[in-house]
């Protein structure tokens, strides 16, 4: 997410697993070793995680951390990189840019860190990218959807800011238009109001949605914003209601989106709220309450439990005994970790130290190609995933249910 930004993996199960993007309270860092494989004579290489491990978005962050841990343990058990043992080094970014930057600085200063999975939020990634890049440490995000992270600020002349940055999820440039097409072409909704939380993820998502919706012939009858630290939205609802929208498109995460949905319906604005992967979490339904029936969300990929590889991942995750669900980005984090591990099979093979292998890992990561939990894992020249499958989910019977899965073209 843009939050990082934010189009689909997991639905019914990932939803059942929970999900989404980040804001956090205070929590300590966590460093754990992947088990199995290796011995006392093995050299150590660490894969870091930067994600919200505490606070409102912890459900998403913990799912990311645990999924990376699972990939590391499996690699060690299989002795995937002979002579090397992989370890997990997890840091809590609290979904805050400055905290994330400090976490990146800590990991970049560790001579054994060779790659990082994260962040959840695009806004945090903007601060993390340059720190890791300066140390030649690859970063693979399972959740960032902000377009500028891979193509820079000039959309007309895309230029990759950092060769060390990759992501396994698709971007707002895909997710926003995908939602617009669903509402206009499949739901038959022509008038929509938009609201975003002023953060990179939400703002970018709404901008991409708005451009496509207007191009299709739809009308944006109202465009409002909220502050992410607000929890009362009477003024916004009052401004939108007289305009008569048939749906509200929201850019942001579930901590704000859930209460907004509940409050707008309590005030008689009984229309579906639709958002991106930032609201695709069971906690959204808890916050929005019973009136969330019919609300919509997009998420990247197909529902995790709809594919054999996804079902296998969920079974392995459950068997590993993690107390938190894999959530919305577990599958993407697992694939991100395995992308790094596949690159390390080449870059660490003849390396005497992690430092010797960091630069080669960047090159080797750009060449990986394998069938992952979320589909084909491969990257284009910008570091973006080549897979553009997304799913629309609808709240039905108090749960997220997959409504439409297709490839964006």
From TrEMBL:
Keyword Phosphoprotein: no
Signal peptide positions (record): 1-22
Keyword Signal set for record: yes
Matches recorded under CDD domains: PBP1_ABC_LIVBP-like
Residue ranges constituting the Leucine-binding protein domain according to the UniProt record: 46-398
Entry keyword set: Signal
PROSITE patterns, alphabetized: PROKAR_LIPOPROTEIN
Family recorded in the similarity comment: Belongs to the leucine-binding protein family.
Protein name in UniProt: Branched-chain amino acid ABC transporter substrate-binding protein
Organism: Nostocoides vanveenii
């Amino acid at each position: 997410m843009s939050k990082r930004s934010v189009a689909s993996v997991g639905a019914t199960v990932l939803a059942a697993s929970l999900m989404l993007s980040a804001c956090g309270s205070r929590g300590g860092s966590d460093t754990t070793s992947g088990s199995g494989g290796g011995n006392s004579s093995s050299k150590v290489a660490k894969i870091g995680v930067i994600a919200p491990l505490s606070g409102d978005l912890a459900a998403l962050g913990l799912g990311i951390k645990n999924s990376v841990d699972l990939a590391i343990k499996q690699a060690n058990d299989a002795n995937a990189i002979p002579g090397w043992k992989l370890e997990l080094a997890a840091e809590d970014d609290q979904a805050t840019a400055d905290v994330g930057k400090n976490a990146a600085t800590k990991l970049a200063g560790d001579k054994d860190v060779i790659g990082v999975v994260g962040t959840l939020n695009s806004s945090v990634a903007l601060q993390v990218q340059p720190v890791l890049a300066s140390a030649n440490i690859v970063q693979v995000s399972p959740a960032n959807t902000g377009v500028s992270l891979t193509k820079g600020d000039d959309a007309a002349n895309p230029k990759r800011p950092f060769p060390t940055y990759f992501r396994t999820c698709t971007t707002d440039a895909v997710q926003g238009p995908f939602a617009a097409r669903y509402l206009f072409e499949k739901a038959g909704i022509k008038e929509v109001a938009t609201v975003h939380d002023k953060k990179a993820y939400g703002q970018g998502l709404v901008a991409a949605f708005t451009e496509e919706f207007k191009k299709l012939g739809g009308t944006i009858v109202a465009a409002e914003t909220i502050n992410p630290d607000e929890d009362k939205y009477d003024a916004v609802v009052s401004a939108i209601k007289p305009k008569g929208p048939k749906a509200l498109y929201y850019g942001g995460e579930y901590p704000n989106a859930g209460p907004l949905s509940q409050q707008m319906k309590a005030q008689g604005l009984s229309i579906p709220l639709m958002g991106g992967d930032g609201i695709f979490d069971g906690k959204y339904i808890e916050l929005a309450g019973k009136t969330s029936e019919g609300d919509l969300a997009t998420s990247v990929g197909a529902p995790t439990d709809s594919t054999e590889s996804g079902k296998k991942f969920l079974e392995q995750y459950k068997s590993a005994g993690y107390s938190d669900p894999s959530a919305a980005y577990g599958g993407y984090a697992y694939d991100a970790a395995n992308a790094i591990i596949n690159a390390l099979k080449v870059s660490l093979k003849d390396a005497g130290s992690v430092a010797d292998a960091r630069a080669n890992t960047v090159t080797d990561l750009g060449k990986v190609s394998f069938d992952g939990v979320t589909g084909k894992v491969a990257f284009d020249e910008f570091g973006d995933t080549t897979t553009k499958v997304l799913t629309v989910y609808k709240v039905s019977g108090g749960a997220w249910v997959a409504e439409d899965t297709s490839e964006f073209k």
